Amino acid sequence: MRTISFIDLKAQYRKLKPLIKANLDAVLEHGAFIGGPEIGALEAQLKELTGAGAVVACASGTDALIMALMAEGVGPGDAVFVPAFTYNATVNAVLLVGATPVFVDVDPETFTIDLGHLADRIAAVEKAGTLKPRAVIPVDLYGLPADYPGLAPIAQRHGLFVLADAAQALGGALGNRAIGSLAPVTATSFFPTKTLGGYGDGGAIFCDTPERAKILESIRWHGTDDAKKESIRVGLNGRLDSMQAAVLLAKLTVFREEIARRQTLAAIYTKALAGKSGITLQRQPQGFVNAYGLFTVRLADRARVQAALAEAKMPSAIYYATPMHLHAAFAPYGEGMGSLPVCEAMAREVLTLPLHPYLEDDDVAAVAEVVKSAL
């Protein structure tokens, strides 16, 4: 049996090598390493891909979150509601703008933010009166969109800014609307292992209006005006470089094909594992389209399954072993162990299985067989 890789960027590079090299050579020739024509071309293609009103490329997925919060004026005294089962970048962004994260549990089936618990947390903050409910950051975990139709009336009722964290989910959709157009503002990451990844850090912000994009473009370039001479607001160095944009432009040529392949492989896993005792698959509600940035399951005995995979020389990973409210840096903002039972159970149970566009059907079937045998 051939070696199964968890992520295979080399296979993708072999396929795209001539185009990637040509795009990088073009940057080397024109020499506009910052703000080159590749940036505008990438933003235009991402806008077309997602149906967003505008796109602003930036230096990382974390910068995308920070810039979006800055543009909205979120800061000290503001409560920002975040699911505690996510990557730490979501919480860091809130703290870096001076706001206060308020942790919310997740749904045990979809793994995305629990809207009932969100409503309870908003009510608690309003009753306490020390913070102003200001924003919510739903996370499209593992590639599945959060429940934006259900979230919209809650956000509207309480005047919350909705910022989607789609770092793992570009390529997903809800009905005929793609991730990037499901919330007023969406942040994504181009970290190399994402559904669309560069060869370094990078990110983008999708927003509903050109007016929002104009503010974000200023923030990304130190808060300067159109001439990049005078600071008209507080900003940062949040620019995506032209070399990364060149790589991403090459990868966009196969992006839809790769998402379709991810979904085909996920269907093989689902058919093999659905309904088996000791395993819970991420539920995909009707009309929701999962990009499968990661294929993650919940296991009654994770250690046994992970050991069986290791013995068979098959990779796996845990995203995430500790919920955010139990991290040392974020514990002061949470209510400790037992306060978010689903997040805590997920941390004990989740296991991510290998899934990328360059796996063979038989590879995925073989992994599924090992998992089944270990249940």
Task: Describe the structure using short key phrases.
375 residues; alpha/beta; Aspartate Aminotransferase, domain 2; Aspartate Aminotransferase, domain 1; three-stranded antiparallel sheet; 42% helix; 14% strand
Summed up:
Helix 4 (88-96) links the parallel strand 2 and strand 3 (100-104).
Architecture overview:
It is a single chain. Helices cover 42% and strands 14% of the residues. By secondary structure, it is of the alpha/beta class. The chain folds into two domains: 244 residues, Aspartate Aminotransferase, domain 2 (3-Layer(aba) Sandwich), CATH 3.40.640.10; 120 residues, Aspartate Aminotransferase, domain 1. A seven-stranded mixed beta sheet has the order 1-9-8-5-4-2-3, with helices on both faces. Strands 7-6-11 form a three-stranded antiparallel beta sheet, with no helix packed on it. Strands 10-12-13 form a three-stranded antiparallel beta sheet. Helix 2 runs parallel beside helix 8. The longest helix is centred in the N-terminal third of the chain and has 22 residues. It is globular and about 65 Å long. The two termini are 22 Å apart. The model has no long low-confidence stretch (mean pLDDT 98).
